[in-house]
Amino acid sequence: MKDPKTPPNEKVDQLQNHTTDNADQKLTTNQGLKINNNQDSLKAEERGPSLLEDFILREKITHFDHERIPERIVHARGSGAHGTFKLNKSLKEFTKAKFLSEEGKETPVFVRFSTVAGSAGSTDLARDVRGFAIKFYTEEGNYDLVGNNIPVFFIQDAMKFPDLVHAVKPEPDNAIPQAASAHDTFWDFISLMPESMHMIMWAMSDRAIPRSFRMMEGFGVHTFKFINDEGAVHFVKFHFKPKLGVHSVAWDEATKISGKDSDFHRRDLWEAIDNGAFPEWDFGVQIIPEEDEHKFDFDLLDPTKLIPEEEVPVQMVGTLTLNRNPDNFFAETEQIAFHPGHLVPGIDFTNDPLLQGRLFSYTDTQLSRLGSPNFHEIPINRSLNEVHNNQRDGHMRQQIVKGKVSYEPNSIGGGCPFQAMMKDGGFSSHNERIDGKKIRARSESFVDHYSQAKLFFNSQSAPEKQHLQNALIFELSKVTIPAIRERVVGQLAFINKDLAATVAKKVGVKVVELKQPNGSIPADADPATLQSPEKEPSTKSSEALSMANTVKDKIESRIIGFIMENGVKAADVKSLQSKLEAKGAVVQVIAGSLAPVKADDGTVFEPKHSLTSTASVCFDALYLCSGKQSSDNLLNEDNKPGTLLFVNEAYKHCKAIYFGNETDEIFKASHVNDKKHDDPAIITSDNKDSDAAFIKAIANHRVWEFEKERNNPA
Ligand code: HDD
């Protein structure tokens, strides 16, 4: 284990049975034969042809030729970690799931975060939804919660999923663009799918460009069912709220991070766990008694709707902690196979038609991705409890089942393995009464497409609304067909007329009034009856939907760049560094070069970066270290462009910048000198308690409310 603070975990212990360590070992073939020359192939004479009999060369090259597997059809780019789920408050009243019943119980988990559209090697900072998939290794078998960082989805029925994915993926003729929704086919589809408009509001918001996986919410999205010991049913929505708050970067910053460090989120997760700054989320549930199913002005089965927290509060009942990096990316993060159909007793599906389709797709995709129905035997996918059934054989079977019998009923095997009674933990589906006709259609209760899109937009702060508008303008400006831009603007007009008008102006189209939202209508329905109603949301504005209301009191794991050069005042540096580190922040020294920096008192600081090897977008906040000589050196001919680029970019991206003693010349030479108002994230030695002011500004994340001023230097 890398970190002594990492607590033991049953799943990690189980994985240890499958790990190997090459330390102090001799090189062997896959058959265990020791190899004495790994440099040269077997030849007829030194300059002659290689021999077919060279089984060592053949084995090595054959294995290499086959070492790739298909990437995930969606969510290909991802990063994962091990951890623990702890139940703080029993949900026994609602569910018989054991991992949710016993207060204090800890369950090992593996969590994989992902982007959706890009390939496995694409940038982490794409504007995209993020996957948030959790495998709980419970005592009753594996339970998978395969959710996202956004609580709703683009479409209402799984029938449209391949269309959605084909539309957003690179276009089929030229495979452009990678990991981006800003192109014709995506917006063509969206413009014809009014049901997607609520999700579009989220996907165009800053939620789609998170600062870190550790600063995202997680949602189960669908409504699920809880079933308790008495068989009573409650509907449930799952929530994960990050203890560090929900934070995002600026779009300009996201595009730059993609160039400077396309592994930004992967690295951030890895380093935080490695440093012992274990990411944590509060786990909460919204619970609705079965008899209240129809009390809402939307359908609980419609995955394009959320339940406002004002209508059903989220009860916080658990903690999710990630505390161990994988040993091997491929074996764990790549081979993990999630499936919303991996259930435990006490949790069941609803008839949400998107969820119902997912129940087919996930096993099916693992068959082509992992290559065999035995994917459950791959170590990361194994349940902690033993597997006993009569399934047999198949590619790469690992388990050696003893005895003659692989059928049931049997007498030869004494009838084993036995069916489990419900009282012994046997799973039984909720006995829901179904009484109706077979029909290929959409429920009328699914037809309101705009009221919750309005709710989301209305709940945003002014800077968030501005960002959302800018994102729509950016995306639609990449659409080459004016009619598509016009249709999207027509859809926006159903949500907010001003938003539609501004976007229309910027993308060069008129706001036309759409008569009938197209798409998602049963072929034989009367379109007039299915028109999305002009409807206001039941809740007008919801605090939980705006990141402006998130937690803003922590600087733990924030990366603070200390920019310095020779002559820096060591005492000031050390004092601030110790205050920041005491609160869990990470200080990294940046200098003109990687050469050690000599401070005024002879202290030597080792730079981690030079002004040219990194960029301000890789830091949460900057400290221009005290000292006239250091400041002069940072402004010499060599360093000045780098220093000012750092400061000006951080300023533009609304970050906290602290000008230490005697760094006025840097202040004056930078865009910060143009500031007109009292900006709490620009700290100088004139501030009363400047160190504390800096810490507060970092915790606040960004001063988005000063973005206009900061982006208009005189
Ligand atoms: Fe899905 C992967 C989340 C709808 C079909 N999905 C996948 C992953 C996440 C989600 C997080 C990555 C899991 C991992 O890390 O391995 N998907 C969602 C959410 C949805 C959703 C929150 C809607 C609420 N998905 C959805 C539908 C279908 C699929 C409607 C098909 C009918 N999803 C898949 C898939 C993937 C997948 C093709 C690709 C790789 C995999 O399953 O293992 O089966």
TrEMBL record:
Gene Ontology BP terms: hydrogen peroxide catabolic process; response to oxidative stress
Biased composition (Polar residues): 14-41
UniProt-annotated catalytic positions: H75, N148
Annotated Gene Ontology cellular component terms: cytosol
Residue positions binding heme: R72, R112, F161, R358, Y362, R369
Keywords carried by this UniProt record: Heme, Hydrogen peroxide, Iron, Metal-binding, Oxidoreductase, Peroxidase
Enzyme nomenclature, EC number: 1.11.1.6
Biased composition (Basic and acidic residues): 1-13
Residue ranges occupied by any Catalase core domain in the UniProt entry: 28-416
SUPFAM superfamilies documented for this protein: Class I glutamine amidotransferase-like, Heme-dependent catalase-like
Domain of life, source organism: Bacteria
Stretch list, region Disordered: 1-44, 518-546
Cross-link 3'-histidyl-3-tyrosine (His-Tyr) per UniProt, renumbered positions: H339-Y362
Cofactor: heme
Coiled-coil ranges (or none): none
Full protein name: Catalase
Organism field: Chryseobacterium glaciei
